[in-house]
Amino acid sequence: MPSFKVNVIIENKPEIVDPEGDTILNDLILKDKKTHVKKVRSAKMLRFVIDAKNKESAEKAVLGICNEFRIFNPLVSKVSVETLT
Fold it and tell me: What pTM value is reported for the model?
């Protein structure tokens, strides 16, 4: 059975305040006069290596694990997955 690298990206929903992103923008980027940067959003990325039949079953298994162990809060977070080969 092949192994897949599945990245899970967890970030705040667009309507949720992102203080970490705001701090990076205000304290680091704008102080350095990088005024062409308008917004920064932070996220957490987890990388799973999982054995699965195919890409779709690998992604489904990883999302199942994330939901089962409450790795993210669905009320405030949005989750996306990408599989690397």
Answer: 0.83
Residue among 63, 44, 53 at smallest CA distance from 6: 63
Q: With cut-offs at 50, 70 and 90, classify the pLDDT of residue 36.
A: confident
Beta-bridged to residue 4, according to DSSP, are 50
Dist CA 11 CA 18 (whole Å): 9
Counting DSSP H helices and E strands in the chain, the numbers are 2, 3
List the end-to-end C-alpha distance of the chain, in Å, as a whole number. Answer: 13
* Residues spanned by the domain of 33: 3-84
Structural domains of the chain, count: 1
The domain spanning residue 28 has which CATH number?
Answer: 3.30.1280.10
